[in-house]
Amino acid sequence: MDNHNNIQQKKEKLLFCGMALAALGLVAAIPTTASAKTTALAQTTEQANTDKGNTDTNKDKPIVKDWNGLQVTYDQKTHELTIPEGTIAAPDGADPTSISAIKDIDSNEIHSINFKGKLTIKGSASGLFSNLPKLEKIDLTNVDTSNVTNMDLLFAFCSGLREIDGLTDTANVTSMGATFYGCSSLTSIDLSHFNTSKVTCMISMFNGCSNLKELDLSNFDTSAVDMMDYMFAGDKNLSSLDISRFKLGNTSNVDKAITMKNMLEGLDSLTAFTFSINDDLSKTGFDTKAVWEDIGTGTVEKPTGKNKLSTSQLLEKYPTSQKQSAITYVKIAEDHPGTPSTPNVTAPITNNTTESKPTTPSTPKPIERPIYRTVMHNTYVYDQNGALKNGEYFAGQSIGTYGTKIIDGKKYYSLGDNSFVKANNVSGIKRRLTHSAYLYNAKGKRANRKVLKKHKSVVTYGGSVKIHGKRFYIVGKNRYVKKANF
């Protein structure tokens, strides 16, 4: 019974953490490779910018707007947003309004933010500074985050952001999903003051930080974390990574399931990698093409280890049941297609017998690139005949898809390797309301006063779910509509 309850609690945590990410349409690919119109965030922003068509054309006149109960001022000449002293405290279970959602202020043109006086944030700060593509620097020294519990998507899609200062108090934060997602201009992040002891979700935390060159995680406490999917995916300029303090389902000290799908995918420039020999890296998507040597008693610059392994061999070798310890591998050669099972790194492989044509074509076959999509409703995995396979993806997780397939009249996304998921759980289907309807949250309480009018088309995800004995369809982040209204 205890095991069953733990599994159920795990699924609930995945749902709520995952839905926070799914609501903004997060994908696991590097953000710049994804079409903006395919994400819910981009759709929301596109609509918001349409609504901003009535902006005062007098560029000399500052725009003053309400933002979470504070009067903020936007200077159209300097493109600076000024936030006064005050407190932001979203209701329980809700998120505050992001800056990018302020009507009549073009978030695509905000270059700087000035905190005029102390700003206190309580509860959720999810998405607060997200989707500000021209913001280059933000100084949070005057922002009190000591009572913040949720930092999901805090700077997501701030693609021009180069510097973040003053973010020091994270002691009460429990979720950091996609906090820096798509911050593709960041080259470093000061994490020295981060307290992550209460954090359970780090899904896509640094995903798509494609210019990040270094990341000091020595202060990270991941003892409570059980969701690390796509955490570093797409960080293609990261040269070194030390996750030896992480607990990735090691053989002796972890008593919980940890999801880490494609956590280490796309680290193309990685040359030094430190981890615990008890860590299971097989599900992390670690795919850096390299031949690795452990440093032994030497250094990163001059390794003296005995093990010389390809990435696939490294994944096969660990975890071990030996006493827990950290080990560092350095890249000593490229691992090209055709590298032998035991890499020879001292001399090139030659053929001294007879000439033969190279087996590798002169023009490599193009690699089929997946399209990454976000799961909106928990979904099982099926084979090409529609039969259940082992495995399940939860709301908020990202999946790489390779086209579609119709199975028994229903549309599925292909995941490769004869694995498929129902498209309805990912991209949803449109349903028309037969009655006007309210929006509800996951607790079955009315989310707001908004009414969806009769005959309106609404995108729903997956089958209906039961909340307090009534059936609802998922229509977005922590948003549900009663099934009876369709």
From TrEMBL:
* S-layer protein C-terminal domain mapped to chain residues: 423-483
Q: Carries keyword Cytoplasm?
A: no
- Alphabetic keyword roster: Signal
Tell me where on the tree of life, at the top rank, the source sits: Bacteria
Name recorded for this polypeptide = S-layer protein C-terminal domain-containing protein
The residue ranges flagged as biased composition, category Polar residues, are 339-348
Q: Where is this region: Disordered?
A: 334-367
Cellular component aspect of the GO annotation: extracellular matrix; extracellular space
| Record field: compositional bias (Low complexity) | 349-362
Q: Give one Pfam hit by family name.
A: DUF285
Presence of keyword Coiled coil? no
UniProt organism field: Lactobacillus apis
**Secretion signal span:** 1-36
InterPro entries assigned: Dev_Immune_Receptor, DUF285, Liste_lipo_26, LRR_dom_sf, SlpA_C_lactobacillus
